[in-house]
Specification:
Two copies of one chain form a homodimer.
Chain A lengths: L2 H17 L3 H7 L7 E3 L6 E2 L1 H12 L7 E11 L2 E10 L3 E12 L2 E13 L19
Parallel strand pairs in A: 1-6
Antiparallel strand pairs in A: 1-2, 3-4, 4-5, 5-6
Helix pairs in contact in A: 1-2
C-alpha cells in the first residue's frame, strides 16, 4: 500500500465507522497516545481522546445521525502529518466540507483532528479528487 | 521567540491581516512554495495559493466583511506541522470555530490550510486557552 493509499484508508475508516455506528472501529481511527481534537458542525472544538469519542458516541446514539458518502479527497502531506480535505455528502443532498488531520503511526495513520461544516457544494464543479488519480508510490 | 510563540504569531498574523483588509500581509501569511487550501464558512474548499488569495480578496472587498477577535488558541505540533484550533469572535457576538494548519519555514511558520465554520460557543465554558498559559520554551 502506498503512503497515499494508507492515508485514504485511514480517512475512509473514519467515515465507515461513523456510517456503521461502530464505536470500536472509531476508537481505532483516532490516535491514542497524544492530543486529539474534533470540531463538529456548530460545536465548539472538543479536546482530548475521551471527550472526542464521547462526543462521537453522543452523535451516533441519535438514530437520525447522518451517513456519509465521501468525495473529492485531497491529501496534503506536511512532514509526518497529512491533511485530508474532502466533501461529506449526507443523505438528502446536503454537504459538509471537512478537514481531517492524521499523524503517521508506523505504517498506519491515525486521526488527530477533524472539522466539518456545512458547505454549498456543486459536485460537478469540484476539482478532480485525489482518489480519482492513479495511486502510485509517493514521490 | 519560542516555537509556540512563533506559531501563535503566525496565527495572529492571519487575523490581523484579515481584520486590516491587508492583502500584502495576507500574502505573507500563506506558504508560497507548496499546496495550500482554504475552507471558508459555507464554501467548498478552495485549492492553490492564487485561488485562496483571490477568495480572501473577494471576501475582504466586501465592506461588511467581519473583523475578528481570536480566543482559545490550542496548538498541536505534528512533526513539522502545527495545527491551531481557535475561536473567532465576529462583531455581534457571533462565533466561528477554526482550524489553521501551519508548516515550519525556517524560523517562521506559514499557513497551509484554514477552515472556519459557525459554532455555538460559550466563551466562559471553553477550556483554558494556549495563549493564557505562560509562553516558555518548548519542551
Amino acid at each position: 500500500m502506498s503512503e497515499r493509499e494508507a492515508i485514504l484508508f485511514a480517512n475512509d475508516a473514519f467515515y465507515i465507522a461513523f456510517s456503521a455506528r461502530d464505536m470500536a472501529a472509531m476508537r481505532e481511527v483516532w490516535a491514542s497516545d497524544r492530543p486529539v481534537s474534533c470540531t463538529h458542525p456548530g460545536w465548539a472544538t472538543v479536546y482530548g481522546r475521551d471527550a472526542v469519542l464521547a462526543s462521537l458516541q453522543s452523535i451516533l446514539r441519535n438514530p437520525n445521525a447522518p451517513k456519509f458518502k465521501v468525495h473529492n479527497e485531497h491529501i496534503d502531506m506536511v512532514g509526518d502529518a497529512a491533511v485530508v480535505t474532502c466533501v461529506e455528502e449526507l443523505t438528502g443532498r446536503q454537504y459538509l466540507a471537512a478537514t481531517n488531520v492524521f499523524i503517521r503511526a508506523g505504517s498506519a495513520w491515525k486521526m488527530v483532528h477533524h472539522q466539518a461544516g456545512p458547505a454549498n457544494v456543486d459536485l460537478q464543479a469540484l476539482e478532480p479528487a485525489e482518489n480519482d488519480k492513479p495511486r502510485g508510490p509517493v514521490n
